[in-house]
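User: I'm curious whether this sequence folds into something compact or stays loose and floppy. Could you predict its structure so I can see for myself?
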Amino acid sequence: MKRIHKLPDHLVNQIAAGEVVERPASALKEMLENSLDAGASKITVDLAQGGIKLIRVTDNGGGIAADDLPLALDRHATSKIASLDDLEQVGTLGFRGEGLASVASVSRLTLTSRPHAAEHAHQIIAIDGALHPVEPAAHAPGTSVEVVDLYFNTPARRKFLKSENTEYAHCEATFERIALAHPQVEFMLRHNGKVIWRLPAQDMQARVGALLGKDFIAEAITVETAAGSMTLNGFVGSPTYSKASRDAQYFYVNGRFVRDKTAQHALRQAYRDVLHHERHPVYALFLSMDPAGVDVNVHPTKIEVRFRESQAIHQFLFHSINKALAATTAGSSSPIPAQGDINTSANVSEPQAALFPPRSPATATGGGSHTPVRPFSYQQQSMPLHVTREAIGTYDKMFGGLREEESRRLAEEAPAPASPLPAMLSPTQLQALPQASEGIPPLGFALAQLHGVYILSQCEDGLIVVDMHAAHERIVYERLKTALEADTIPMQPLLLPVSFAADRMEVATVHEHGEQMKQLGVELAPLSPTQIAVRGVPVWLQDGNPVDLARAVLKDVREFGLSQVLTERRNELLATMACHGAVRANRQLTLTEMNALLRDMENTERSNQCNHGRPTWSRLSMKDLDNLFMRGR
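Assistant: Here's the prediction. I'll summarize afterward.
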């Protein structure tokens, strides 16, 4: 048996390089972090052959004194920490002091530096880990690290590197991640002598737009929240701007790009109600917190961290993003102002006049005097769109006979004229909705129904197409959630209870949990060992199939238990209930019903997507329509 012996330093460095320097991108990351820790405001990166042949990083940071150059390439030598207390609250990107030493052991490395107070620069060369004497050199204030022929002395390791294009792609991704988090720093990237990126010092929005694209910024929702010592800033993409992979997800903790399961789960949960299960959200988020609350020394490449209070972090991230996503409504990309952000002392008549301009005598019904507009309700008759009225008139002439019976029934049952939508927001919030010119609401006014599935609506700048089932499903879902948070969903008793055949387990579930299920707006009563009666359903689901609804609720309660259904699986069950109660395809709607649905969409949170993440509406602008018919060409 072989005796235990101490490994030579050079071999130790090469073993460490296997963990820290996985590929050229890993070496580039270490070098860029050193430049940022040195306070650089301008960093230039040169690559050759994807970083395999050359990696050079030049900065204008604080520089390294000539006497410290050999220490910079020694293992566990650093200026960033000096004690355990420093390690437990690291504020720099690097801190171990092994990055450059590891890179130097598997490459030909040249380190040139000049402190701002020094008259001359000095350099040191390391080949295969062996250090040459420090020599004078020519260099501007700052530091330059040049790595040539990575893994030249470990052929077995070099053969595991991928192609030049693949390795360059990893290097560019590393460059973008670091540049994204430091918009105040000027960056430049050259590959094989060609400038790829030139990023000036700029604000955060401009830097995110440059790296993630202006189309992302156009669809992004700004996030700015704080709780205690934690702050979260950045941008999250709207659910319609999603990707098939997670490549466009950037999450930073104190300026360090990390992949953390706690954060990923919180963000995924925040998008749960609005994102299709096969899509992934896009975001660039920057979490700032007390360095003592996060342990960055848990992974060789520092790509993972460990939060001391992970549950608090999860809740903070979830509620911050969930609130941002909830503040969007159909027809508007602007968040709805919170109640406290609205100036309630403003003159109510001004926004009301902007939304509902008085009709002229020529357009008023009967040509008489002006009839006051009912407050906070859209009036189809006052819409100043003559073409729309003509189209509706033609539509009524062609198909009016098919609905005479329905029209008479609705006229008999209809109450006094009122707002077509139950108020989802307060009047003050309703005032703050996006105001279009001439009193046209964001989603316009309905023109017709297409194949019993889509609603066609004319808006201010084109045509709106609405998936009526998906839109109504989201509206009902949000109402159910709001009602349950207020303790109980309002129930509509059935005049004639509906009975259905049930197995013994379903009957037993009703016996055990029937009273508590009333919180969900469902009243069930066992009639016999094989029969259950549905005596009440949620008021918003009264037009749905009560038997299907009852079976869905019983299935979840049996499988997961009532307590879990009312807590962890609450949203899943409410989504199922909303789906059963939403208006079905091929159901003919009147113009009044269609317009009521459009107004509800404008006043409902997250109404751009249904409960499954699919879009509820789409817009064709006049420019899009002109392009279809090649107008103006």
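Summary: The first strand starts at residue 42 and ends at 48. Confidence is low (pLDDT under 50) at residues 333-389, 414-437.
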